[in-house]
């Protein structure tokens, strides 16, 4: 039975691409659960299954076997229409490339998911969303008039305004300089601490991982370790070990 105190869980998750001798297992029997109000970083070498895991959780890919449970509900077999609504209403996304609509203002980008769902975002909710990320004075600016860090902060405001069950962040600092990245990571951390926002972040950066409560390491589609209260140095050391394991396995 799923534990309803968890915002997200995957059970026995397997994803196989192709068939026969050419088949590739991107995920192999992954069991993970993410408690409400926690921040988890997913790390591993290239090809370890990190992005596939996020895609399966978000309903963008169907697992070959296993289950995805969102707030205790098995969403694995939902049809595309239900999965689309799930992504719109219950999952927030933050991407490396910001994924803002270039002809919409910062405020319009933040409100877009709600508008697509037929909901109106009130002026006070919009003000609070932009104030939380320090951009209340930039509400009317197009993305082209914003720095990379400001664009990512708009993306975070957009992800949070609908109060999603889970926020999925895929390399959210990959396109940012180190100082701007720290500002973005601090925002993600504050959303966990102040809003109890469950956050799952894929990253290759040990510094980014150090903002999380826990790091989960993947190797060849399998969970190979966990680290609580991570530090950048400890994560970097573990990643070096994972690279060695991957080299031996191949």
TrEMBL record:
Any one of the GO CC terms: membrane protein complex
Residues covered by the ABC transporter domain: 8-245
One GO MF term attached to the UniProt entry: ATP hydrolysis activity
Matches recorded under SUPFAM superfamilies: P-loop containing nucleoside triphosphate hydrolases
Secretion signal span: none
Gene3D superfamilies attached to this UniProt entry: P-loop containing nucleotide triphosphate hydrolases (3.40.50.300)
PROSITE patterns for this protein: ABC_TRANSPORTER_1, ABC_TRANSPORTER_2
Key words of the record: ATP-binding, Nucleotide-binding, Transport
Classification via InterPro entries: AAA+_ATPase, ABC_transporter-like_ATP-bd, ABC_transporter-like_CS, ABC_transpr_LolD-like, MacB-like_ATP-bd, P-loop_NTPase
Pfam families membership: ABC_tran
PANTHER family, per database record: ABC TRANSPORTER RELATED, IMPORT ATP-BINDING PROTEIN
Name listed for the protein in its UniProt record: ABC transporter ATP-binding protein
Higher taxonomy: Bacteria, Bacillati, Actinomycetota, Actinomycetes, Micromonosporales
């Amino acid at each position: 039975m799923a534990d309803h105190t968890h915002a997200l869980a995957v059970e026995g998750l397997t994803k196989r691409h192709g068939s026969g001798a050419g088949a590739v297992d991107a995920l192999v029997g992954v069991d993970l659960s993410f408690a409400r109000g926690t921040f988890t970083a997913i790390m591993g070498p290239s090809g370890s299954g990190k992005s596939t895991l996020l895609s399966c959780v978000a309903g963008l890919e169907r697992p070959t076997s296993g289950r995805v449970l969102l707030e205790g509900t098995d969403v694995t077999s939902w049809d595309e229409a239900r999965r689309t609504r799930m992504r719109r209403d219950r999952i927030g996304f933050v991407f490396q490339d910001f994924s803002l609509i270039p002809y919409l203002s910062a405020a319009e980008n933040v409100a877009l998911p709600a508008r697509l769902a037929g909901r109106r975002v009130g002026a006070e909710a919009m003000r609070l969303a932009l104030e939380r990320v320090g951009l209340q004075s930039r509400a009317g600016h197009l993305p082209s008039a914003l720095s990379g860090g400001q664009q990512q902060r708009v993306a975070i405001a957009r992800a949070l305004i609908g109060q999603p069950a889970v926020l999925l962040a895929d390399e959210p600092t990959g396109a940012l300089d180190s100082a701007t990245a720290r500002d973005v990571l601090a925002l993600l951390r504050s959303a966990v601490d102040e809003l109890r926002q469950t956050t799952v972040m894929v990253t290759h950066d040990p510094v980014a991982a150090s903002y999380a409560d826990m790091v989960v390491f993947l190797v060849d589609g399998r969970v190979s370790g966990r680290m609580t209260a991570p530090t950048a140095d400890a994560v970097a050391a573990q990643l070096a070990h994972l690279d060695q394991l991957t080299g031996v396995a191949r």
